[in-house]
Design a protein that fits this description.
Elements: E1 4-11, E2 15-17, H1 30-39, E3 43-49, H2 50-63, H3 71-82, E4 84-88, E5 100-103, H4 107-116, E6 121-125, H5 128-135, E7 142-148, E8 156-157, E9 168-175, E10 181-187
Helix pairs in contact: 2-3
């Protein structure tokens, strides 16, 4: 069975964005980009909510072609182009795009079916609404959290719709020089 991994930057108090979606508090640098770049090689599928997918689709297909493209832009754009995309969206469920599957109904059953298919792990990238939808069905197997040294006190929480107590096991952790702590948790 394929593993479904939620991949997020999060504040110390558990928010993935401010009240209006602000993410200007997230600390990223080459060290984190290199870590993430190495990490996503274990994945061949990206899962997004509609809003995040539209942002990604507006940037990554041509990011490597820009004259000022960074090493991260070039590497992630190459991964994005070859990765299969799954988009949770009720409004786009009948869309057809190359290498993209839109799911708007029977989310639990359809994601369970995807997890049974051959392939590498599935990454949820920065889509809190998609994560919330999948958490309610207990479909997220692993969390990769990049805990930023900040308290937001309000905003969009990462953990919402968790149906019951979910024990986790810390698999690995890494402290980055910018103060961010990366942690990998699996369901116990």
């Amino acid at each position: 069975m394929r593993t479904l991994v939620s991949f997020f930057h999060v504040s110390l108090d558990g928010f993935v964005a401010g009240p209006n979606g602000e993410m200007n508090w997230i600390k990223v640098d080459e060290e984190i980009f290199d870590h993430v770049g190495h990490r996503i090689n274990n994945s061949d599928t990206a899962l997004y909510g509609r809003v995040t997918w539209q942002m990604m689709e507006g940037y990554w297909p041509t990011a490597a072609d820009q004259p000022n493209a960074s090493k991260h832009d070039i590497e992630h754009a190459a991964w994005y182009k070859k990765a299969h995309k799954i988009v949770l969206s009720k409004t786009m469920q009948h869309e057809q795009r190359l290498n993209t599957t839109f799911i708007g109904e029977q989310v639990e059953q359809r994601i369970k079916a995807v997890k049974q298919q051959d392939g590498k792990e599935i990454l949820i990238f920065g889509s809190p609404s998609a994560t919330h939808a999948l958490l309610q069905y207990g479909l997220v197997d692993e969390f990769w959290l990049f805990v930023n040294p900040i308290l937001l006190s309000k905003g969009i929480p990462l953990f919402k719709n968790v149906p019951e107590t979910t024990p986790l096991t810390l698999v690995s952790s890494k402290t980055f020089t910018n103060g961010v702590i990366g942690m990998q948790y699996k369901k116990a």
